[in-house]
Design goal:
The chain is α+β, with helices and mostly antiparallel strands and 389 residues long. The protein is built from eleven helices and ten strands. It has helices spanning 8-22, 27-42, 69-75, 83-90, 146-213, 216-243, 247-252, 254-268, 287-308, 345-355, 380-388; strands spanning 44-52, 59-65, 95-97, 119-126, 129-139, 272-277, 312-320, 323-330, 359-365, 369-377. Helix 9 (287-308) links the parallel strand 6 (272-277) and strand 7 (312-320). The radius of gyration is 35 Å and the shape is elongated. Bound molecules: adenosine-5'-triphosphate and magnesium ion (MG).
């Protein structure tokens, strides 16, 4: 019998069921809903949905309705899909029987299993592949008929769409969780680079330049400064672990944190730094933006110290309309920004700025030195508040 030949009341009930199944996006409750619908449509005493394993040769799950928990635990092992149930696994087509026990594949029910007579089995194919089978037994009056079979076949088609949707949603959730974890790892890498590695690098510069000078006084001063720096690094690392945030920024605010950063650098380097900060302490800036500003300047000037052989750095921080603009210029040897590098600094900086919705421009030449320009959009609330800042 075709679906179109079903009595109108069955067709409209199936439509209702189909709508409600496809609105259910959680796989587990959906399987119960499908099983219950199959039982309701046919008037079966027992209904089950057997879900196939990944190799589609046996059942891995069995959702049942009609058998209560106590009966289930008495029966013990659930069917793995041998016997009559297995017929549908080997040959996924509807199967209707007046008596299960008379089928050649029947091998008898396990102990404590209620005896069952009439049977209707219908496969559920999802994306053309067998997902599982609906098993219905013991129709309350008479045997399963053409109408029952056509109804359950239609139900199985709705079920396939609903299962497909629910699975996609489940996969999307999983993908989002994996992406979230990946982003978190990237953030950790960036924080470790920007905080711990920068601090240790500065410590290395401090100690090795003292060793180069070689006199006792320089070594003594460097050891004292180095020890202090190490104490700061340990505390920074603690705060990184606790919060993944730069400690000095939290404690001191943007202006003082930047001054401390420049102070540390100029005490050991051979260049001078000129900072023009129109944002002051950046109180009106959202915390995340403040960190981005600090990190960009930190990486830029550390790069100058490490690579540029510059004598002068000019750093500017200001507000322009609804954005924050910052630039760091050095008069050093320059480099080719398009060339590949094993460093993480510039890439991490650009990634950080992009995450904040901003843009980074790197211009560099052997004669004109290097300029890093970054433009960061201010969120709406902060844009008006920063005007006073
Ligand atoms: N201001 C600069 N002057 C000259 N060269 C620079 C400057 N900034 C960056 N570079 C060059 O660009 C390369 C990449 O910089 P990047 O910050 O990405 O890596 P890094 O500083 O070498 O290592 P990391 O930042 O991971 O510790 C540097 O190795 C250096 O050759
Ligand atoms: Mg770097």
């Amino acid at each position: 019998m075709l679906e179109s030949q079903l009595p109108p009341e069955n067709t409209s009930r199936l439509l209702e069921i189909g709508r409600s199944l496809t609105a259910n996006l959680e796989l587990e409750p959906l399987l119960h809903q499908i099983t219950a619908a199959a039982r309701e449509l046919t008037g079966a005493k027992y209904a089950a949905l057997g879900v196939l394993n990944s190799s589609r040769d046996s059942l891995e799950r069995f959702v049942t309705i009609g058998i209560d928990e106590a009966q289930r635990s008495e029966i013990g092992v659930l069917p793995s899909g041998r016997g009559v149930l297995g017929v549908l696994i080997d040959d996924p087509r509807p199967l209707r029987l007046d008596s299960i026990s008379r089928h050649p594949s029947a091998y008898g029910f396990p102990a404590h299993h209620p005896s069952m007579e009439s049977f209707l089995g219908v496969p559920i194919l999802v994306d053309g592949l067998a997902f599982g089978n609906l098993y219905l037994t013991d129709k309350s009056e008479g045997n399963f008929d053409d109408i029952d079979e056509a109804s359950v076949v239609t139900l199985a088609a709705w079920a396939a769409i609903a299962i497909n949707n629910a699975r996609r949603i489940e996969q999307d959730r999983l993908r989002a969780a994996i992406e979230g974890a990946e982003q978190e790892r990237r953030r950790w890498a960036r924080e470790l680079h920007d905080d711990t590695l920068q601090g240790l690098g500065a410590l290395n510069v401090l100690l090795s330049s003292a060793v180069r000078r070689g006199d006792l006084e320089s070594l003594r001063t460097a050891a004292a400064a180095g020890s202090e720096q190490l104490r700061v690094e340990i505390s920074n690392l603690r705060s990184l672990i606790a919060e993944l945030r730069p400690a000095s920024l939290d404690e001191l605010g943007l202006e003082a944190a930047l001054e401390a950063l420049f102070g540390r650098l100029t005490s050991t380097a051979d260049f001078d730094v000129e900072l023009s900060n129109e944002l002051g302490n950046g109180d009106a800036l959202p915390k995340e933006l403040e960190i981005t500003v600090y990190r960009v300047i930190q990486e830029s000037i550390n790069n100058v110290a490490k690579h540029a052989s510059a004598s002068h750095i000019q750093a500017q921080l200001r507000r322009n309309g609804s954005s924050i603009e910052l630039s760091v210029h050095d008069d050093g040897r320059g480099f080719d920004p398009g060339a590949g590098t094993s460093g993480f600094g510039l890439v991490g900086m650009q990634e950080r700025v992009a995450l904040a919705g901003g843009t980074t421009t790197v211009t560099s030449s052997t004669t004109g030195g290097t300029t890093i320009q970054v433009k960061l959009p201010l969120p709406n609330g902060a844009a008006s508040a920063a005007t006073q800042g």
